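Handout, page 2. Input:
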Amino acid sequence: MASDQLSAVFGALADPTRRSILMRLTRGDATVGELCAPFAMSQPAISRHLKVLEEAGLISRSRISTRRLSHLEAAPLRAATSWLAAYRHYWETSYDQLDALLATMEDEA
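Output:
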């Protein structure tokens, strides 16, 4: 994944409303009205969130008859998770070293 797309994905995920929209889309495609229902905001505000998600590649939009549906595109999330996995390994190693140090200190006390 290109660095710019990775930045766009993390930027899109930084907003709790957009994360909630993505969670809703895990259950299936939805219209703007359906996505707007749980929030105290207007359809144009939700549409702006959808635009950010679409630009980050996290959703795609299609038209079926008069309905415009949003669809989850999970590939960018997988790429972001892979990028984070290296840091998870780093922190797990660091915690293991800290556990060993604490065990040594307890044995000496």
